[in-house]
Amino acid sequence: MGQTVFLLDTLATKLSFLFVNYRLLPMGSFSKIERIDGEKYIYELYGSSDIVGMIFWNRRFDFGLIAFLNCVQQLGDFAEQHDSRFRLPYRINKDKIGDASIRLQFNQDEAWTKALKYTLINVKWMLAFCCSRIAT
């Protein structure tokens, strides 16, 4: 997850794009996302080995994944506004990308893996968009 956070943050920087309500904190395997609107909060985008922490981890991790997916959508919308031919292959609606939920909690492994795959594909398309914008 950390490398994907770093890539999305780099793409946003190259495109001079600022996310609304969130700030990505790429920190390798310990990446986070900060909610900057209203009450500030930091969501971890990594697991916890602490038994007590595991009780609350799934929920915080889910909120972090949803926030990250929102950032993917924001950058995708930005790209679509700047190039009428550009469309992300998988539509994002709240916690769903395509037909799969990004939430880990109460989700089947197959569906969650599919959501992560769709997220990576969308980020890959934004990488291609960014490279084409820089090249021109």
What's the arrangement of secondary structure elements?
Elements: H1 2-14, E1 22-25, E2 32-35, E3 41-44, H2 51-82, E4 92-93, E5 96-97, E6 100-101, H3 109-135
Antiparallel strand pairs: 1-2, 2-3, 4-5, 5-6
Helix pairs in contact: 1-3, 2-3
InterPro entries: Atg6/Beclin, Atg6/Beclin_C_sf, Atg6_BARA
Pfam family, one: APG6
Protein name: Atg6 BARA domain-containing protein
Q: What does this molecule look like?
A:
- Residues 1-131 form the Atg6 BARA domain.
- By secondary structure, the chain is of the alpha+beta class.
- The protein is 53% helix and 13% strand.
- It has helices at 2-14, 51-82, 109-135, and strands at 22-25, 32-35, 41-44, 92-93, 96-97, 100-101.
- Strands 1-2-3 form a 3-stranded antiparallel sheet, with helices on one face. A 3-stranded antiparallel sheet has the order 4-5-6, with helices on one face.
- β4 and β5 form a beta hairpin.
- The longest helix is centred in the middle third of the chain and has 32 residues, at 51-82.
- It is globular.
- The protein starts with a helix and ends with a helix.
- The model has no long low-confidence stretch (mean pLDDT 93).
